[in-house]
């Protein structure tokens, strides 16, 4: 007879109420605790699953508020600022009962992780900024547009390239969950270094779903991101990971993060795009687990 008592870190799916909003999360693996915050904003958490890291770490996959089975804010789809996501993480970390955790943020989740590390350093043992950037807005978009043009040139003649470019061009007009899901799935080939020669391997990623999050606060003001002037005040050990072929948050931004954050470690995955944990899972897991082992308390 199994008499094990479930705890906040028992394997499986859990929900905790944080400020009257349900926060869903998923636990897998054993070892030091590492929270993983997915991107988007609004993407379902499953794409970020990291089985290779779970062999060494207790991975806590956050289902961000506003997505999946987590709760919605009263102003939904507005109000999901980095500070509001950070408050949800505050409640989750308290619930887990771990003094200091490692926080891994992917893409937009990296923006959240940067904000958390800058505003709540005492709650973190370390931060992993995975395919992140120190700034968004026109400069970031222009860099992404150049990268997408290079991607199109490299893959001229590939079947489905036009669909990828159509998905890219749709991003400015997304306004509902269905459109976000279509765009996320449509952009997948651009997010991988070599999609068309490995379509069967990457097919499970096409199950990703999205929730429309406006990017505005509850007063309908954009949640602008520019952390460049603050990177020097980082007091949290930091690992920066990016794929060499990432069209969204590639080596340029990884380099700026690593140069700006004191004593940050930089790892470039040479055969990856925006999803190195899937494209080079062993190299990715080695980098993360070695960093956690060196910084765990």
UniProtKB/TrEMBL annotation:
It comes from the Bacteria. Gene3D superfamilies: alpha/beta hydrolase. This is Pimeloyl-ACP methyl ester carboxylesterase. Residues 36-281 form the AB hydrolase-1 domain. GO terms for molecular function: catalytic activity. GO terms for cellular component: membrane. It comes from Nonomuraea polychroma. Coiled coil: none annotated.
């Amino acid at each position: 007879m199994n008499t094990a008592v479930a705890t906040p870190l028992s394997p499986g799916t859990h929900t905790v109420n944080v400020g009257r909003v349900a926060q869903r999360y998923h636990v897998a693996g054993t070892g030091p605790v590492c929270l993983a915050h997915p991107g988007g904003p609004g993407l379902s958490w499953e794409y970020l699953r990291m089985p290779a890291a779970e062999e060494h770490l207790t991975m806590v996959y956050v289902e961000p508020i506003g997505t999946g089975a987590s709760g919605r804010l009263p102003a939904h789809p507005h109000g999901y600022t980095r500070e509001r996501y950070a408050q949800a993480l505050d409640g989750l970390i308290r619930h887990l009962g771990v003094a200091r955790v490692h926080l891994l943020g992917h893409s937009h989740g990296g923006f959240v992780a940067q904000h958390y590390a800058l505003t709540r350093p005492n709650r973190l043992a370390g931060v992993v900024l995975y395919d992140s950037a120190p700034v968004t807005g026109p400069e970031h978009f222009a860099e992404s547009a150049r990268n997408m043009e290079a991607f199109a040139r490299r893959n001229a003649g590939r079947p489905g390239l036009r669909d990828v470019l159509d998905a890219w061009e749709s991003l400015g007009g997304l306004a509902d969950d269905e459109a976000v899901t279509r765009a996320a799935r449509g952009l997948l080939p651009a997010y991988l270094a070599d999609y068309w020669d490995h379509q069967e391997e990457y097919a499970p990623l096409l199950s990703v779903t999205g929730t429309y999050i406006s990017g505005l606060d509850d007063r309908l003001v954009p949640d602008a991101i520019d952390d460049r002037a603050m990177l020097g005040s980082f007091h949290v050990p930091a690992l920066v990971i990016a794929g060499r072929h990432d069209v969204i948050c590639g080596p340029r931004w990884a380099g700026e993060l690593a140069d700006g954050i004191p004593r940050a470690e930089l790892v470039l995955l040479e055969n990856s795009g925006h999803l190195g944990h899937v494209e080079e899972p062993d190299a990715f897991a080695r980098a993360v687990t070695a960093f956690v082992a060196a910084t765990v308390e």
